[in-house]
Amino acid sequence: MSGKKTIFFDRDGTLIIDMNYLNDPEKIFYLEGVFEALGRLRDAGFQFVMVTNQAGIAKGLVSPANLEEIHRRMIAEFGRHGIQFAGIYFAPQPSDSDHPMRKPNPGMLLAGARDHGADLARSWMIGDRMSDIEAGRRAGCRTILLDGTDVPSQSAFPPPTFVARDVLHMAEFILANDRE
Ligand SMILES: [Mg+2]
Q1: What residues sit around ligand 1, an ion, with C-beta below 5 angstroms?
Q2: Mind listing the pLDDT tens digit for each residue in 103-160?
Q3: Is 131 helix (H, G, I), strand (E, B) or coil?
Q4: Under CATH, what is the fold of the domain 6-116+131-150+167-176?
Q5: Residue 119 annotated in active site
Q6: Which H or E run includes 162?
Q7: Cα–Cα distances in angstroms (integers) from residue 69 to residues 35, 41, 52, 157, in the given order
Q8: 34-43 and 167-176 are packed helices; what angle lies between their axes, rounded to 10 degrees?
Q9: Domain-wise residue ranges, the chain
Q10: CA 43 to CA 36: how far, in whole Å?
């Protein structure tokens, strides 16, 4: 077991503001503190993988070309801050789909772990919804919910490892609980 410690990030509401079926590459707004938070985690030796449900594709509200452009711009902006993503995965299935790649199923995380050599027991899933947390749990990761969207006590899924106030609080918790 010498896989890489990996942080899987949800996209909307976790790295950028959730615009509800974002389809316009001009409307990417980064969460406050996100570059600083990911920079600290990068310096601690984590690799990053983004895993995003994009049911807007199935609904016809998000075009595949725009989704690609949004991710190209995000890669460029994170890159300007010295932050790389080992992989980006999206699940285009509709909201009512139980497809293995759509969160809360862990398919995107398992694909990311396989493609990029993750050690899931040393890895984390970060998101703003309990479906993110459940996907991380099913993949065998520890999990952090960003406070403000979903409330764990109101979810059918088991609670996250931790609830963070914001992305910097998330990074502090991971750095304090990293398993070497
Ligand atoms: Mg989200």
Answers
A1: 10, 12-13, 128
A2: 999 999 999 999 999 999 999 999 999 999 999 999 999 999 999 999 999 999 999 9
A3: helix
A4: Rossmann fold (3.40.50)
A5: no
A6: strand 162-164
A7: 20, 26, 15, 33
A8: 20
A9: 6-116+131-150+167-176
A10: 11
Residue tagged active-site, from 12, 128, 132, 150: 12
Cis amide bond preceding 25, omega within 30: no
Ligand 1 mean position to 63 CA, how many Å? 19
Distance 119 CA to ligand 1 centre (A): 23
Average confidence (pLDDT) over 92-112: 98
Q: pTM for this one?
A: 0.97
Active site residue 10: yes
Rounded Cα gap, residues 131 and 127, in angstroms: 8
Contact 119, 176 (CB under 8 A): no
pLDDT of residue 22: 97
Give yes or no for a contact between 92 and 57, defined as CB atoms under 8 angstroms apart: yes
d(CA 59, CA 94): 7
Query: Residue 120 corresponds to which amino acid?
Result: L
The DSSP bridge pattern shows strands 6-9 and 47-53 to be: parallel
Give the whole-angstrom CA distance, residue 111 versus residue 115.
Answer: 6
Helical packing angle, 107-116 and 130-139, nearest 10°: 50
The Cβ of residue 5 has, within 10 Å, a number of other Cβ atoms equal to 20
